[in-house]
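Structural prep section.
Before we set up the soaks we want a predicted structure of the protein with zinc ion in place, mainly to decide which crystallisation condition to try first. Input record follows.
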Amino acid sequence: MTFHSMWAELVPIGRSSASGGYRRYAWTPADLDCRAWFKEQAESRGLAYEVDRNGNQWAWLGDPDAGDAVVTGSHLDSVPDGGAFDGPLGVVSSFAALDELRARGTDLAKPLAVVNFGDEEGARFGLACVGSRLTAGQLTREQAHRLTDGEGVTLARAMEAAGYDPDTVGPDPERLARIGAFVELHVEQGRALDLTGDRVGIASAIWPHGRWRFDFRGEANHAGTTRLTDRHDPMLSYAETVLAARREAELAGAVATFGKIAVEPNGVNAIPSLVRGWLDSRAEDQGRLDAVVAGIEKAAGEYAAAHGIALDVVRESFTPVVEFDHALRDELARILGKDTGITVPVLGTGAGHDAGILSGRIPTAMLFVRNPTGVSHSPAEFAAEDDCVAGVLALADVLEGLARR
Ligand SMILES: [Zn+2]
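Run finished without errors. Recording the tokens verbatim:
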């Protein structure tokens, strides 16, 4: 199985003919087809296949109990109408890298494994990285069982319907104890590599990020008969705040997005009584992020006061910065630069990953493959096949460097 043929097998699974995007949600038939594909890849290579207590799939080359394993992999599920590369590129590249090592005849001192973490995107149950969170002990069985999809189906019921036992889910310290290093290859979700002209990069950190809810409360009234000067229109303060968010983010070199909004009463001929907007903001470091959000809050408060609007800001979620293991990161840079003398770019990212979840428990690192447009979570997501192959070879070099005798 070459990279090309593995890729071709996965391409049709869970693809919407209407949008061209992927709808591979956790525990749905499309996800189960991807899982069947993974199992087949493991078995056709004679790798030891297992599913852990949280439904993550593993394919082992060598004895899992030997310890200090070098593990690679990613995820196969998708966001709604996601691209083909986010997740699958890492899994396909992992199998291809294993094939490359076997072809090289590398004498391995450590066991290697490929993993497919379940429900990374959280598209169905609203929480990202469920498989790795459970394994790392960041999500309890009770919390997982309470997760519910848009149709009212619980995660537990969905796992059961897919033939998995939801009562086994929970922390898996024994499994983590077997792993010496985890390296996740992923399509880049930005244009940093395109701008530097490199095919492959190494991750430095995942930016701290959070979500804040802004409630602007004014006074509902008739859109035709209420004089402009008599209005308490929260939409105006909201609109000014969106512009302020853009300004603050630009000043700090951060990102800030109002991408979701709810309006009451939501009538075309009514001045709103409430505009609720959700801010997503991310920055390279905590200080910068705090400054951006404080700046946006301050501006929102001033605009609200000017229009007679009551403002409430609530932080709904927050994830601190994830610094990948420095020693492992430096080791990757050394391995990849060894023969070429080329310095591989090291870059931060604003997107979350299973590697970020696991980094609190085991040494983790990430490789990024160039994405010429930077578009991700969209059918337009793309990586050239040459770059994908360069990613496979880089991953093979890394696995070889970390696991060879
Ligand atoms: Zn991903």
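Observations: The chain has two domains: 3-207+321-403, 209-319.
Flagged for discussion at group meeting.
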